[in-house]
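Appendix B, example 12.
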Amino acid sequence: MRNEKILIIDDDPQIRMLLNDRLEMNKYIVTQAENGIQGLDLIQRENPDLVLLDLMMPEMDGMEVLNRINCEHPDLTVIILTAFGTIEKAIEAMKLGAYDFLPKPCKPDHILLVVKKALERKGFKEEIQFLKDEIESQYDMFIGESKEMKRVMEMAHRVAAGKTTVLVGGESGTGKQLLSRAIHDMSDRSDKPFVQVNCTTLSEHLLESDLFGHERGAFTGAHQMKKGRVEMAHRGTLFLDEIGDLTPSIQAKLLHFLEQNEFERVGGMSPMKVDVRVIAATNKNLKDEVKEGKFREDLYFRLNVVNLTLPPLRKRAEDIKLLAQYFLANFNRILQKKVKKINSEALNIMKKYHWPGNIRELENVIERAIVLTPEDVITPDLLPMQMTSESEKTLKVGLHMDEAILKFKHQFITRTLKFTNYNQTEAAILLDIQRTYLNRLIKELNIKIK
């Protein structure tokens, strides 16, 4: 059922009645004005989605009304009603921003077609604006008072211009993809494609085809030529997520592409040139991967022209309040809720928590709290149990310093191991220590491994 509001402004009562009946039959909500002054008043009070405006009216003609609408309600869609002999004025009105015109006498089917298309266009414009706002608002995540984030964003602004390859590091959930997108949007390539490739989701064969494309008949099932993501990113930015998981064969092909700015489709015989800026991201320590022979040293140096490392959330506790408020506002809008704030006790618990899942975990915590709260305030009882129980596990005053440090290490490492399901490699990454050192600490502290 339709609920769009349409306002008819016309001094001819017969035209108004004809349009009113036809539109109401098709479930539109219709209001009428017999002159421009009354019409402008109804626009202010009723906030219609569409205006059908006659050009030839006494007191205030349609052109004057259109000019007022353009100034006071620039997003309002207007269709001109024009009698024989005033087509030129209707065209002039369209140059001033009117969507279309309907000649009088109005044909019923034509009225409905023009109205439907005008409202669809309005809907598309609103959707596009919503998506733009959604994308732009995500960059608010990088606001903060911590010197670590200020330094990262200052560097991002500096490297945005030009074609310099950037390597973005940081733990899972710190916002590497968003930072990479922000660099693209700050660059002179912002109106060109931002093409993302996740290097972990496909097998080697499929990833090569996904990256570089393939020719028809290159392999079983290749029934037609397919462009790869490198080609689709021409004049834009290619974002390679989780670059540390590439196989040696793909690493070699990527190195050739970075050195020569050219590639061949799978099954192709001739090289193709493209103009692409590459931003890569990883949560691995690529220096260690190079030492262990898992990542090519020459590719590492080719990627690591500029290195930006996003700090984990536990190292930017002063930003937690700002980030939490950002997510609060964002989910209020998405979930159509009106939660006003996070109380001080809940915020203190958040600041003390170690956030192994980083910003992504904080986002999930706020969304969960907004969904569960019966009031307009987020309180500690709405936070996940592991957060509130951690805040209560304080070390007793009176312990010897060395004993307190050992207890803290035992608790902290145990919690991290539980979070990673006792995967010591992932735990070492979260703790920012070598796996061999973690293994030694486990033995020294007598931590039980399941």
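The radius of gyration is 30 Å. The mean pLDDT is 86.
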